[in-house]
Structure formats: structure tokens, C-alpha cells
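Task 17 of the worksheet. Students: predict the tertiary structure of the chain below and write it out as C-alpha cells. Keep your answer in the requested format; marks are given for formatting as well as content.
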Amino acid sequence: MYMRKITGVLAVMIGVVGLLDSWKKTMDQRLSFLADFCRLYKSGRFYLAQQKMKTPVFFDGFKGENEYFTKICRKISQNLIEHKYPQGAECWDMAWKKELNKYGFDSDTKRIINESGKYFFEISPDEMEERLLEYNRALEKKIENETLKYQEKRKVVYPVGMLGGIMLVIILL
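Model answer:
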């Protein structure tokens, strides 16, 4: 009898810890994606605007912290080489549209990322450098705000999650 109760208690607490860990990983991945966009903008300013590197080569060679982000950049490169879309900006939009919804970014963040895509393609190097710097600054502010929100939520979510798990255990006993 007691073994069943102990097993139930452990199962509930492991479930709660698993949910909290899943939430933490999702939040970390969101911040990682935004940081990779900032790295992409900085690299774009250097390699595309200053060094005049070809766009498909740039996207193929970009390596972000997030492996999935890097994979999407390679997909953009492949689509550019294969001319799957008439314009590079359209290729950018198609690559990121689903991902931005998947991670639940707010509309302003989505707007920044979507608008920034056109500045990797078919514009003057000076304008590219200026615009990518502008979007980089905007995303850095977003990262700062997201980090602060995440830290505040974490202070509440962890204790409430554990307390909820303990209350569930008490109810089930």
C-alpha cells in the first residue's frame, strides 16, 4: 500500500519537474534564436556589406549557437542556389514564418525579423549595413526585455509549479 503511494508521489513530482524543465528549455531556445539573429545581422554586415560575399555562400557558412537555426540558414542557401523563389526576401519569409510562430514570438519581434530579411538581398552595401545594424539593435533590446521577463517568470513558475505538485500529491494521498 505504501509502495503505491510512494510511487505515485515520485511520479507526480517527476512530472512536475519535467514540465518545469521543458518550459525552461523552450525559453532558453527562444533567447538562443534571438541571439543567433543578432549574430546573423552582425555577420551579414561584415561579410555581405563589407567583404562582398555572395549571399548563398554566406547563409551556407553561417554557424549559430542553435543547430536548428544553422539548419534553416543552410536551407535558405539551398533555396537561393536552386532559385526556388523569385526573390531572396521571399525565400527568407518562407524559411522563418513557421519557426517564428512555433516559438511564440510576439508580433513586434516577428515584424523585426520579417522586415530585416529583405536587407540581405539586392540592395546597396551601405544601406544593408545601416539597416542590419538598426535591426540588430532592436533585437538586442528585445533580448534584454525577454531575459528580464524570463527571470521574473522563473521566480514565480518554479515555486508555484513545485507547490502545485506537492498539493496534488497531498490530494492524491
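Marker's comment: The chain has a mean pLDDT of 87. The helical segments are 2-50, 55-61, 67-81, 88-102, 107-117, 125-172.
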